Structure formats: C-alpha cells, structure tokens
Amino acid sequence: MAISSFRPSIPVLAAGFALTLSVTGAAQAAEAWQPTKNIEIIAAAGAGGGTDQLARLIQSIITKHDLLKVSTVVQNKGGGNGAEGFLDIKLSKGDPYKIIVGTNNAYLLPMVAKLGYQWTDLTPVAAVAQDDFILWGSAKLPFKSAKDYIAAVKADPSKYPMGGSQSKDVDQTLTMLINKVEGTKFTYIPFKSGGEAVTQLAGGHIGSNTNNPSESVSQWKAGQVIPLCVFSKERMVYTDKVTDTQAWSDIPTCASEGIKIDEYRFPRTVFMPGGVTGAQRDFYVELLRKVTQTQEFKDYLTRGALVPSFVAGDDFKKLVEADSARARDIFESAGWLK
User: Which of the listed residues 263, 282, 304 is the one where a domain comes to its end?
Assistant: First the structure.
C-alpha cells in the first residue's frame, strides 16, 4: 500500500500559526509586566498597629523569599485614620510602583468624611486575610452567654455601654447594626484604640466591646474579659487552648446565640493607584498570593486568630461593593453620609 504524503492546507497552516501565536502570547502575557524599580508599600496607619505590622510582614516575606528583583520600602501615612495614605494613592494615578495596605477604611472613610478621594479612584488588588469580630463581655458581670447579655441590655441599656475603637468606624458600625437587628439601645463610647477599649472593659467601666481577637487575648487569658460570641457563619478554626479551658473554636457564633447577624468581618486590604493596567494589577495579585502561602504568613494568621482567606481582583471588588452597600444603609440611618 502506498503511503501518500500529507500536505497541510492553508487553513490548517493558519490554525497552527494561530495556535503558536496564542501559546506565545499567553507566555508573554504571564511576563507582561515586571517592576524595574523599587516599590513603595504604604501603611495606612501609624507605626506599631496591626496595619503597620502587616505591611512590614509583607515586606519581610518578599525579601526573605526573594519574591522581587527590586527593593521595597514601607512608609507610614496614617493621618485621618489612613486617609492620608489613600489620598496619596489617588494622586499617584497610573503609578504601578505604589501599593497601600489598609482595612475597610479604604472605602468606608469617604462615606463619613470629605477626604478628596473615593475608593473607586483606587484599584482593588486583594484582601489577604480577614479579622473576625467578637462580642466581648466583662468578667465582672454575671452573664456567660450573648443571649443573656442582650436580654439584660434590652431591659436596661444604661447599665451596659458598648465600647470600641474610634467613632464612625467599624466598631461603632457593628454596634449600630446590633441595635438595628435586635432592637437594643446600646450607648457607644469611642476610645482611641481597640487596646484602650479592652482595658476599659477589663476594668468593668463598660459592659462590652466589639473587638477583633488579637486585641483582647491577653485580658481573656487573665480572666478579665470573656468572649460571648463571634460574628461569623462558622466557629473559628483555631483549636489550641488559649485559656486553661477554652480555644477560639469554643466560642459560639452570634447567630447561634440569637443575634441576627450572620457575619461581620474586617478585611486586610491592598490597593493600587487608579489607572494602572490589568497586567500590573495581576502581578501584585500573584505576588500577594505567594506571600500568603508562606509559613511566616500562616504563623501570622494563627497568632492573630485571623480568618485565612485570600480574595483578589474582581472578586475582591465585589466584596468591597457588597460591604460598602451594607455600611451605607447603616450610615444613612445614622445621618453620617457625606
């Protein structure tokens, strides 16, 4: 049997050429942008706080694991609860050599104050972790469950003021949300920081506070405060004992205690200036993904009892939009909107 030679037709050749171009293009796209000069990591907070610590952790992991061919420098720009840093990012439109580490202050601050920027002026990159919020009670009070405490507050709210960090910020927002869904009338007392709020709670000067886990752990270990419930759909994942008898995973969810809030969390966010390219944003998404996969970052999550979640790109943008919409309803009812 004769074997005829095969000569590809023009369409087949074109398809093969197109495939080659496609593969080549994909490879080039993966390497479409790389930084060629040093990168500034802005911490939207003062030195020493949680945002500053995260920014410096990201920098140290990048350096230790040689994730960049250029250097990084951390700059603190925390004026106006972080607005100083976000305004800097707005004014750096198109600059791919700046990123900013913050929280939901990136998109909540402009709702309650005239700051010269909106979060839509920025480019969302990723939420690298989230903080759960816990309703903490004073150990000096007789209540051992959130259900009993909320009932007492409804009966006589003047006895049980709620403390928190700052005014018109996440702690007060959560307090107002509790008032909205439960019909409570908490009086909110703002303090300079979450640390100051938990000190006041440990001393019995307030009845409760809303705080993330890490800022209250020392007082919990000392038996001065108790975690009544966590504002999460599921219990926390950390099973090692914090006190002699309890781990983070032993804290019931607030929904199981009858508080009609399924989840309230505090994202640790990273943004870039507006006007950058998709390839530039994607570069930082992948860089941060690598950071969060290191043991150092996993240890950071465990120390702070943070939620191990990584939300990036368009999914992160959707998270921001949903969180903004919920906050807007609360701010509008409070008369805070600007």
Answer: 263
